[in-house]
Design brief:
The chain is an alpha+beta fold and 154 residues long. The chain has a domain of 95 residues: Immunoglobulin-like. Helix content is 17%, strand content 36%. The chain contains 2 helices and 11 strands; from the N terminus they run ααβββββββββββ. The strands form 4 sheets. A 4-stranded antiparallel beta sheet has the order 5-6-11-10, with no helix packed on it. A 3-stranded antiparallel beta sheet has the order 7-8-9, with no helix packed on it. A two-stranded antiparallel ribbon has the order 1-2. β1 and β2 form a beta hairpin. It is elongated, with a radius of gyration of 23 Å. The N and C termini lie far apart (98 Å). The relative contact order is 0.18.
């Protein structure tokens, strides 16, 4: 066995140091579990948060959320009581058949709740999912848009 293949096979096995490190990570995760979007989010014993960008441009607000590896059916976007809720669920259908030596991929549910300003028109909300990025566009209500005032002359 070459030196490279020998060190590679040792690094993939469950070494005592790797197992202790994983147990410490899980302990800290349980003790100091942060909250994302009003909910604690867990996956593989680790915290999981999907990064979000929000910006305003002209007559619309835009939200983009990175959700790689999800299918369209795994996503849920809903509006209720002035808040936009985004939930994504990745199922782990192979958990019973595999004995993982190392697993950094996240699975389970991740969600974000984004409070929206009153100026958003709820009927205008549109969402698309392309290349692992969820994009949500929200138009402003017409009555809150700037209005040009005609100046009358005598």
């Amino acid at each position: 066995m070459s030196k490279l293949s020998s060190s590679l096979s040792r690094s993939l096995g469950p070494s005592p140091l790797a197992m202790a490190s994983r147990e410490m990570d899980e302990l800290f995760d349980r003790l100091f579990q942060p909250v994302v979007g009003g909910q604690a989010v867990r996956s593989n014993g680790r915290q999981w948060s999907a990064p979000v960008s929000i910006w305003e441009e002209g007559e619309q607000f835009h939200i983009q959320m990175d959700l790689p590896g999800f299918s369209h059916e795994d996503l849920d976007v809903s509006f209720n009581d002035g808040q936009l809720a985004i939930t994504a669920t990745r199922k782990r259908d192979d958990a019973e058949s595999r004995k993982y030596l190392h697993d950094e991929r996240h699975w389970g549910e991740v969600s974000r709740v984004i409070p929206l300003p009153d100026s958003v028109d709820p009927d205008s909300i549109e969402a698309s999912y392309v290349d692992g990025v969820l994009s949500v566009t929200l138009a402003k209500r017409p009555e809150v848009l700037p209005k040009k005032i005609e100046i009358k002359t005598r």
